Amino acid sequence: MAKGLIDKKLVSRAAKLEKQIFGLKDKLAALLRNAKPRAVPDYVFRKHDGKPLRLSQAFGKHTDLVVVHNMGTTCPYCTLWADGFVSILPHLQDRAGFLVVSQDPPAKQKAFAKSRGWTFPMASSHGTSFFLDMDFADDKGNVAPGFTTFRRNGKRIERI
């Protein structure tokens, strides 16, 4: 009799590990939901034309803002992720301001966005501590992708 193609012990161990991971994700989500908003500075980014864009301006008419931390032109996964924003942008902007930020200089970011057909708002954080301050970079300058949500509370900008 031929041995089965599925290693039942491996599948069982994987299922147990997956259950532990889901449990930890639930704990992480609860911890983050209960975190108190934290005031942040009104960072100044650069738009594609080199003009400044303050974080407070990115909210537009909304109280909430979603900022996507994009690793820039060198990351194919960030590019794939950003390609999807084009189709969901109207739905996002119904609810909140939306901004994609990378550390690429404005001219490089502009050329890449044009080559991809991206129509969503973008800005460069090149030369700022934004990624580091938001915990999406380490002390060596290595960046990671993700997103941060902000809320405008009067003139105060809070990370939530």
Any key phrases for this structure?
160 residues, alpha/beta, 6-stranded mixed beta sheet, two-stranded antiparallel sheet, 5 helices
Mean pLDDT: 93
Strand order of the largest sheet: 1-8-7-4-5-6
Q: Which geometry do the CA atoms define?
A: globular
Q: Give the C-alpha Rg.
A: 20 Å
Count of helix runs: 5
| Beta-strand content estimate | 15-25%
Order of SSEs: HEEEHEHEHEHEE
Q: Give the number of DSSP strands.
A: 8
Distance from first to last alpha carbon: 59 Å
Helix-and-strand structural type: alpha/beta
Low-confidence stretches: none
Largest sheet: 6 strands, mixed
Name the helicity range: 40-55%
Offer a quick outline of the entry:
This protein is α/β, with parallel strands linked by helices. The chain is built from five helices and eight strands; from the N terminus they run αβββαβαβαβαββ.
Describe this structure in words.
The chain has 160 residues and is α/β, with parallel strands linked by helices. The chain has helices spanning 8-33, 55-58, 76-95, 106-116, 130-133; strands spanning 38-40, 44-46, 52-54, 64-69, 97-102, 122-124, 146-153, 156-159. The longest helix has 26 residues, at 8-33. The radius of gyration is 20 Å and the shape is globular. 21% of the residues are buried. The model has no long low-confidence stretch (mean pLDDT 93).
SSE map:
Layout: H1 8-33, E1 38-40, E2 44-46, E3 52-54, H2 55-58, E4 64-69, H3 76-95, E5 97-102, H4 106-116, E6 122-124, H5 130-133, E7 146-153, E8 156-159
Parallel strand pairs: 4-5, 5-6
Antiparallel strand pairs: 1-8, 2-3, 4-7, 7-8
